[in-house]
Specification:
Length: about 250
């Protein structure tokens, strides 16, 4: 049950733009309702969004055109902090214990990027990272998790950026995790492989798992048609990101 190729026609592009505008308005509605919905927030990703982004969304939202721009601003902030701590101390242990936050992917991404910039080499694995930096304040397992998280951050942002630009499902499948240094399967992140990553990216782009979705949930068949995906993909997306909630149970 694949969607048509309407996204490639002038009418299809117009329809995509119209739906994108609607999603932007829906996000604004979600932001306006965030205080009332605070007690409804579930899942660490939503908790993470509320904890790290909500204050900046309040002041910067109108000046930023996408969630990826917000993430980029966080990345730049963390990179600046990491650079300043290292340049002052020349101590990677101090950097990883004071400027790299285990629950913030952008901080871990900025850390790995700065290490690679400093030593002009690609970090291969946790052991290689340990050898380069001499870090003793983090375990080898912890360094491996930091590396995976940093690679995942880049990969997932690439998916989000593609979706914001109107990418179709077949185009998302061409964005390979391996191209970002990820293995075929990984752990410790929101998703664990290419398919589940695409499902989460779709969920965030189309508000399928947002608290506001209780009132604003879009029609999954329309989304499937827009992105040229089998309807089963959207059902997998809904089931993965709304565990315990049956599609259609709230009138959607």
């Amino acid at each position: 049950d694949c969607g048509s190729s309407e996204g490639n026609t002038p009418d299809g592009k117009s329809l995509h733009k119209e739906r994108q505008t609607k999603r932007t308005k829906d996000r604004e509605t979600y932001t306006n309702y965030r205080k009332q919905l605070k007690g409804v927030f579930t899942g660490y990703r939503i908790a993470y969004f509320h904890k790290h982004y909500i204050t900046e969304v309040e002041s910067k939202y109108n000046n930023m055109s996408s969630k990826t721009e917000i993430k980029d601003s966080h990345y730049i902030k963390h990179l600046k902090e990491i650079r300043e701590v290292y340049e002052e101390s020349k101590d990677w242990d101090k950097v990883i214990t004071t400027a790299v936050y285990s629950d913030v992917e952008e901080a871990q991404e900025a850390f790995i990027d700065y290490v690679e910039e400093t030593y002009q080499t690609k970090v291969k694995d946790g052991k290689h990272l340990q050898e380069l930096t001499g870090i003793t304040e983090e375990t080898l397992e912890g360094l491996e998790e930091t590396l995976i998280s940093s690679r995942y951050s880049k990969y997932f942002r690439a998916l989000e950026t593609a979706l914001e630009g109107g990418a179709t499902y077949p185009e998302l499948l061409k964005i390979k995790p391996q191209d970002f240094g990820l293995p075929k399967n990984w752990s410790g992140c929101l998703s664990s492989d290419q398919y589940s990553s695409i499902l989460w990216a779709l969920s965030f782009e189309f508000l399928i798992n947002e608290p506001g979705g209780l009132m604003l949930l879009p029609d999954l068949r329309s989304i499937a048609q827009e992105i040229q995906a089998p309807y089963s993909v959207l059902m997998d997306c809904y089931n993965l990101t709304n565990k315990g909630k049956k599609y259609g149970a709230t009138g959607d």
